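Quick one: Succinyl-CoA synthetase, alpha subunit-like protein from Salisediminibacterium beveridgei, C-alpha cells please.
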Amino acid sequence: MQNPKMDEIKTILEEAHTIAVVGLSDKPNRTSYQVAEFLVNAGYHVIPVNPRVDEVFGVHAVDSISEIKEKVDIINVFRRSDYLSELAHDVLDFHAPVFWSQLGVYDENVKDELENAGKTVIMDRCIKVDYATLLNV
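--- reply ---
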C-alpha cells in the first residue's frame, strides 16, 4: 500500500483546520481520545463521530459523517479495517478531501475507491505521530 510522500502529509497537516474523528471515545484511557486530545491541543477543531457518545472535549458528537454540517479537512478513522468499506460510502458523499485511517487500519479496495473519487488517502499511519515528527513538536 502506497501512502502520499511525507512532504505531502506535512502540507496536509499544516493546512488542515477541522478533523472529524470517527470512532472517537469519550474515555481518556482510549487511544482515540488521547490522539484527538493531542490534535485539539495542537489547535485543530475536532468533531467527534460516534453514535455511542454525547460529546467529547465539549463538542457535541454526531452519529455519522453525513450529519456533519461544517467543512472538514481530514476524516480520521479509529475503527477496524472491516468497517472501512461501509465508511467509504459516507466519505464519497462528503466533501472532506483527506481520508486517514490509524495504525493497523487499512483496506486496499477502499483506498483505490476513494482515490479514484479524488480523495487523498492515508492508511495505517498515526496522525499524532506524523504531526509530532513532521511539525517538530
